[in-house]
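Our preliminary data section would be incomplete without showing what the modeling component actually yields. Below, a chain of 306 amino acids is followed by its predicted structure, encoded as tokens that our downstream tools consume directly.
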Amino acid sequence: MKYRRLGKTELTVSVIGIGTWQFGGEWGMDFTQADVDQILGKAKELGINLIDTAECYGDHLSESLIGNYLAKDRREDWIVATKFGHQFHDRFTRTDRYGAAEVLTQLDGSLRALKTDYIDLYQFHSGPDEAFDNDELWTMLDKQVQAGKIRHLGLSIGKNGNLYQTESATKVNAKTIQAVYNRLDRKPEEDVFPSCMEQDLGVLARVPLASGYLSGKYKPGAVFAGNDVRHRHDPEYVAGLLKQVEEIRKNEVPEGVDMAQWALAWCLAHPAVTTVIPGSKSPAQVEANARAAELVSADHPQAVTK
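Predicted structure:
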């Protein structure tokens, strides 16, 4: 495993993290505690130390599964990132909750679910600019940082070109940006990443495998089950993506290199990107993703020897 400095947080994170939206049940399967224990156990064995989750991944369900694991492990070995701003009602159904009092309730709920007394990185989750422009919210969160419930604040931008929130990060004491970034979606390179580098913000690249389309598993014509979030994607859009993936596979992925590992390493080659947070459904997927670190150059602005 390789490690990088997460911007102004000064935290040292593995270049491969664990995304956990799937634990909430919206990616085609339900996870037992044993499943999650095996996935996180394998991650730790391979040197991964970053877990990214959210309160709305199954109404604290993902957090609870992670918390049950952490209760049996050394909490200090992990950097736990979660998010706020949505209330889960049912699969694929959420409502926005960005008021200061609402977020404080969410924070306390996340701490209970995660079975911890602090969160390493607490992120504003894909909210509109109107919700972001709330001094009361940021004042409340700053007090929680001072109280020790939160170590660092971050922003998970909903639109990859949201330069307004990115440029305002330092003003609200946010030290990281999370954005969708992958070989099929390079929008952050235009404005967001340059701003992150200027402010010394750590960058978490989410959806680095483009919702699995860059995993190498799916050929043109693939169909997803009704309980899989990708079932909701427009068929013409999916067909276009899979055709583009085939071209990338032929023209850009070196022969003999696993496409998913190549795609993760591709994200990590950008000088702004600190870490990627692919989801994993099994210990074998964790192991495959972790091997992408072997393709990552040690010559990176945020590289840390560990």
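The two ends are 9 Å apart (CA to CA). The longest helix spans residues 235-251. Preliminary results of this kind motivate Aim 1 of the renewal.
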